[in-house]
Amino acid sequence: MHFNLNHATDILSRTPIVLRSMLGNLSDAWTSGNEGNQTWSPFDVVGHLIHGELTDWIPRIKIILEAGESKSFEPFDRLAQNEASKGKSMEGLLETFQELRSNNIEALNKMSITEDDLKIRGKHPELGAVTLEELIATWVVHDLDHLVQISRTMAKQYKEAVGPWQAYLSVLK
């Protein structure tokens, strides 16, 4: 599929709704389980998505549009949620994410990004030159990646309980 900004925002605007449907009002047994050492629970993932809304996507879009490759993006702390989410509830995180994402979609729409703008390059601290189109496409796929991660992590909480059906459930492999 060729990148289309409207298609991208269709997904980005739905992620908070999907997360609320999947995780809202669930017990900690579902939202705090992970896949083992140094893996993330659904709670951790939502905290990570919040951090991205605050420090990654829109700030980097602005850098590309305002400075191109002359200014490198700030490195992204992939573990910032560990401290930032302490003492918070899943309901609070979901509400925060929904509000931040709504504001970021509104900000993105107000930028009136053109096809030419999508080709503008920015500078990632590790990857080097990246285009605005690649950044926004990555935002979409990042959301989808974490939705898969949450589903897989939750499914694995019942890995033993499904017994012999494990053989048919690819999410458990």
Task: Report on this structure.
- The protein has helices at residues 5-23, 28-31, 42-55, 57-67, 81-84, 90-110, 115-118, 132-156, and strands spanning 121-124, 128-131.
- It has 173 residues and is mainly alpha-helical.
- The protein has one domain (5-172): Four Helix Bundle (Hemerythrin (Met), subunit A).
- A two-stranded antiparallel ribbon has the order 1-2.
- A hairpin with a 3-residue loop joins strand 1 and strand 2 (128-131).
- Helix 4 (57-67) runs antiparallel to helix 8 (132-156).
- The two termini are 28 Å apart.
- The model has no long low-confidence stretch (mean pLDDT 96).
Provide the spatial order of strands within the biggest beta sheet: 1-2
Number of strands: 2
**Distance between the terminal alpha carbons, to the nearest Å?**
28 Å
User: What oligomeric assembly is this protein in?
Assistant: single chain
Q: Give the proportion of residues in helices.
A: 55-70%
Counting helices, strands and paired strands, the structural category is: mainly alpha
CATH superfamily: dinb family like domain
CATH third-level topology: Four Helix Bundle (Hemerythrin (Met), subunit A)
Q: Main beta sheet: strand number and arrangement?
A: 2 strands, antiparallel
Low-confidence parts lasting 5 or more residues at pLDDT below 50? none
CATH-derived architecture: Up-down Bundle
- Overall, the morphology is elongated
Beta-strand proportion = under 5%
CATH class: Mainly Alpha
Q: Please give the radius of gyration in angstroms.
A: 18 Å
What is the tally of helical segments? 8
